[in-house]
Each structure stands twice: as structure tokens, then as C-alpha cells.
Amino acid sequence: MTVTAALTVAPLDDPDVDFDAEIAAAVEALDDFDVRYETHPMETTIEADDLETVFAAARAATEAVDASRTYTQLTVDHFRESDLAVEEKVDRVEAHLDRPARSE
């Protein structure tokens, strides 16, 4: 089984907070879990073997942000009967495109 998730965590409504530093703290919190992750401009993609690990990692990332208000969005793709790594998802799309899935 594979669980893939898109996680967005950000401080809100707090002008005294260093936005980038708090995002870094959220990402760093993921290191305490058995997950693979890659950070992009709008979210961090997480891959784990089970839902509990994804939810725990997302919670830790949220709690790592030191702000009076925090926004968290978690989108989960749960393959219950097979394994599909995040790279394979992209590879499948690129096979149809016959090119990388990004602009040149």
C-alpha cells in the first residue's frame, strides 16, 4: 500500500512571523517520520506506507509553525491494494506526453 499526500502549511495573519522560516520549520518536522518528501513552491509532496504516518507527519508540520494562526491543507491519495511511488505517477503522465511534464 502507498499513501501520497500534498501538504500545505503556512502561518496566517501574523505580520511579525518570518514566513519562510516557519515553512522551513514545518518541512523540518517531517524528518521525524518515516516519509519521503519533496518541497515545491505551493506544497510538499509526502509519500508513506500508511495513513497514520501521513496524518502524524502533517500534524507535526502544523504544530511546528510558531504563529497565532496556521493554515493547513492535506490532500491524500491512498492506494489500498498496490504500491505506486510518486515518481511512477509522473512517469505515467510523461509517457503519454512523450516528454517531461514541465514547460521547456
From TrEMBL:
PANTHER family: UPF0045 PROTEIN ECM15 (PTHR33777). Residues 5-94 form the Thiamine-binding protein domain. The lineage of its organism: Archaea, Methanobacteriati, Methanobacteriota, Stenosarchaea group, Halobacteria. InterPro entries: MTH1187/YkoF-like (IPR029756), Thiamine_BP (IPR002767), UPF0045_domain (IPR051614). It comes from the Archaea. Belongs to the UPF0045 family. SUPFAM superfamilies: MTH1187/YkoF-like. Signal peptide: none annotated. This is MTH1187 family thiamine-binding protein. Pfam families: Thiamine_BP.
